[in-house]
Amino acid sequence: MPRIPDAVRRRIPPLARRDRRIARLESDLARARRLRDAADVRLDHARTELTRVRAETEEEIDRIGRHTAQETSRLREAMNQQRRQARRARAALDRETRDVERLGRELEQTEERRKDFETRLRHPSFRTRLSASLAALSLSRDRSWHSSNTQAQLTVKLRNYALAQSHGIAVPAVHAVWDSPEAVDLSGIDAERLVLKADRGHSGRAVIPLERDEDGWHTLDGAETLVDGRPTPQMIDRLRSGGAGPYFAEQFLASETGETLPADIKVYTCYGEILQVLVMQTDGVDADERGAFTRRYFDADGESLGRVLPRVTLSFDMPRPEPWEELLDAARRLSVAVGRPFVRVDLYTTDRGPVLGELTPTPGGIQLYRLDHDLAMGAAWADAEVRLERDVARGRPVGTLFGEHEYTWWYDAVAGEGGPEDPSTWPRRQAYAEVPYTPPRIEDRATILPTGDDSEGDSEDGREASAGDTVSPGASPRDDGPARR
Question: Is residue 322 a contact partner of residue 298, using CB atoms and an 8 Å limit?
């Protein structure tokens, strides 16, 4: 703004005041600018300091964050490790708890078995008597005392067939008999099916079912084929290793139920008394595979005995075989005729009625029945010994007695050795086995069965077998309940 001369300004008072005011304002403005510049400097300094502090703060935060993350990770890892240790400790504790529980159960089972076996040792037991009978059979065989030992004689199939025929009991038709497996020749046999067997085979061994088609003879599963009616080397080995000769081909007994093999009916008898009837069936074709069979146990009245033998495959839908009474009658007659306290009579049902399979003096396998059943059969065995001894004292001939019916002696077809193991040298006494015959009296057996004071073995329903709970062969506390062992 142009300045007004002083002379003029003095003559104009307002203008003088204005100039003074302007001068003050300019001075204030200059001072304000100086203050602003100082403030800008301080602001810049503050901004610089703020930036520095912010950077340091962020760096410290980052450091603290990293440290916190590291500590958190370390603590988390330590926690996870403690959790893993806790889980391992818990798992170890659980294992130890299970081990303790398992050992406790095993201890209880061991104690139960100890009591079980003590009871079986204190009282007549089927299993212990069977073991003693098997030992006696082994001694008789080792010493070749067959001619004087009825038990050893019962292990020979063709002689048993002759015995059954002599009592009017049907047997499979025998097509031919040979001295050795190598001599077997099926080319001249007129049959569609047959079974090769060894005379002294047992437990389903040395039993080879065969059938014939346009290509010749072969096993039922088609795995082996005979050449010109001669057995393969594998068949020869099976026959020879499964039992001693002679060797024979017999009628193939077809199953009435459509199964590949007929039901195997095993009647456990004690000198005319029926202990139990075991029925075994299979869809397979290999009689050696005993584990493939399903079973059911019946009493003499045809009622189910339930699970009297543990660890076997049972079928509670299997019907009892028919004709029931004819089967049991055949088993009773042979049981009395063999002159032994115990024998198992193996039968088949056919359109001709009951047909004998074999006589078994010492059944193989577990044969460790539920305690009450084992003791009842053991009592029946003891009773049979007493009755048989009484009958012998009253005039019954000792040993196996042949009946009055005609029979075929197949050993005439082979060259016997004439030694003590040749069945043709053994006695074949003919007598009426029913005279004299003392029948069983089951009601008198309470004196030889365990009482409540000295029997600690549990029956199937958890009760102790006592004299008041006398269990006869064929009786069961419950029908088809599971075994307690």
Answer: no
CA angle 12, 15, 19 (to 5 degrees): 140
* Rounded-to-integer distance, Cα 148 and Cα 162, Å: 18
Beta-sheet pairing, 401-402 with 429-430:
parallel
Q: Could you tell me the maximum CA-CA distance found in the chain, to the nearest angstrom?
A: 186
First to last CA, the chain: 127
Q: Is the pLDDT confidence value at 335 over 90?
A: yes
User: Who contacts 190 (Cβ-Cβ below 8 Å, separation ≥6)?
Assistant: none
Give the global pTM: 0.72
More confident position, 191 or 257: 191
Closest CA to 250 of 357, 174, 348: 174
Among 437, 299, 440, CA closest to 381: 440
Nearest to 372 by CA among 313, 307, 320, 316: 307
**Would the pLDDT of 460 be above 50?**
no
Which range has highest mean pLDDT (4-18, 159-173, 246-260)? Answer: 159-173
